[in-house]
Amino acid sequence: MAQPNVEDVVYAIAVDTNTPIEVVSEMYAERWSEVSDGDRITGYLTVLVAKRVREDLRSRH
């Protein structure tokens, strides 16, 4: 299964939440580092991180 392109994921979140790409990118990187620490299997992490960033952004509004 092909991994989604991180830039595409960040862009989609930014558009969906009306948030600057730079903010989403920083949040994505922070969340990624939180959940990927020590994980050997990272295939599911893109989806998990994207979900958490969306939730974080929606809870701000």
From TrEMBL:
A Pfam family annotated for this UniProt entry: DUF3562
UniProt cross-references to InterPro entries, sorted A to Z: DUF3562
Descriptive protein name: DUF3562 domain-containing protein
